[in-house]
Design the sequence.
């Protein structure tokens, strides 16, 4: 099958990206979304050895919180089931943060350093401060087994949409906002007004609806408009939890689909 | 991925694909339906807690002249091709 995909980035920064994919079927788009969420392995703390815990929280509660800390997962370094050891040692009066975790692998560290684990005190009546010391094993696992291993958070897609100008709006009717969210492909530039930072309207341009306050009546004043989906074109929104870049998430997800297809093909031939 | 043929006739196939879920099965079903030789393709997947059969069962009906197993192989190849094409297009754009 000679399918040609066309990918175009709409916006991107460190942890989020929005991109348009053309030529993709709804089934494939959803498979990709699900693979990004559940099938890209990341490191997460899975078992904890408590050496000392005189804080006000149970060991189990602390362990749960540690598990939810995203850890950076370098590409092609680990396989599923691999283990990295981390350690934490904090004494009150101080708050233990995710950034206090030290790992035995130079490329593995907490993706965010400012997640509070627990506030440790030194009560006046006590002879010693509260203390938390532990060792933890982070395991490479998949989101389908535990949500702490999800590399993608808030992953979704919408159809690319386009606006058709039907007619002029009624001259004496009240103008009402017409709210639309997502990205539109401009096909009626002659009726559109320039919106923030997007320059002169031009047919074929991709316009994020935020640029006109998600309100079509601001982009096409005094027009009666309708909205259509563009076939086989999806705008993906992918946000990473910091364990890897959006690019790695998406390519790993595509690879995981390809791998399974290869496996099936070989199994069928036997 | 373990396959277990449940029912096989000259133009019909029922096969269990162990260890897969909607992520892959729906993509595969989509690829099967894109083939002209396939008359019908569907899969059934019960939820984890339902007990009993929780691995997906894929059912394919084909035209007279073609073996459904060959069709399945072709669809799998197409999924692989698509995923690779997508990855390349994505990397080229980023």
Sequence:
């Amino acid at each position: 099958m000679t399918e040609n995909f066309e990918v175009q980035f709409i916006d991107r920064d460190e942890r989020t990206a929005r991109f348009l994919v053309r030529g993709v079927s709804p089934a494939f788009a959803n498979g990709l979304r699900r693979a990004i969420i559940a099938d890209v392995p990341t490191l997460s703390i899975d078992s904890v050895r408590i050496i000392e815990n005189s804080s006000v929280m149970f060991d189990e509660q602390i362990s749960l919180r540690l598990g939810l800390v995203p850890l950076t997962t370098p590409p092609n370094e680990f396989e599923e089931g691999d283990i990295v050891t981390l350690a934490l040692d904090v004494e009150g009066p101080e708050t233990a943060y995710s950034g206090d975790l030290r790992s035995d692998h130079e490329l593995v560290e907490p993706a965010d350093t400012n997640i509070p684990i627990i506030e440790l005190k030194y009560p006046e009546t006590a002879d010693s401060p509260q203390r938390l010391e532990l060792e933890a094993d982070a395991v490479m696992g998949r989101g389908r087994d535990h949500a702490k291993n999800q590399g993608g958070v808030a992953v979704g897609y919408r159809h690319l949409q386009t606006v058709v100008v039907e007619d002029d709006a009624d001259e004496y009717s009240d103008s009402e906002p017409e709210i639309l969210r997502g990205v539109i492909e401009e096909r009626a530039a002659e009726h559109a007004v320039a919106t923030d930072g997007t320059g002169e309207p031009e047919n074929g341009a991709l316009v994020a609806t935020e640029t006109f306050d998600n309100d079509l009546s601001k982009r096409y004043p005094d027009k009666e408009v309708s909205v259509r989906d563009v076939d086989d074109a999806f705008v993906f929104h992918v946000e990473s939890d910091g364990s890897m870049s959006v690019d790695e998430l998406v390519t790993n997800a595509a690879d995981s689909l390809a791998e399974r297809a290869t496996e099936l093909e070989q199994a069928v031939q036997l | 991925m373990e396959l277990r043929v449940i029912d096989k006739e000259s133009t019909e196939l029922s096969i269990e694909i162990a260890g897969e879920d909607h992520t892959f099965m729906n993509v595969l079903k989509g690829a099967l339906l894109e083939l002209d030789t396939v008359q019908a393709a569907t899969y059934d997947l019960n939820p984890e807690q339902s007990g009993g059969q929780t691995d997906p069962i894929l059912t394919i009906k084909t035209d007279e002249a073609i073996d459904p197993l060959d069709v399945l192989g072709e669809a799998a190849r197409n999924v692989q091709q698509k995923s690779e094409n997508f990855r390349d297009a994505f990397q080229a754009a980023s």
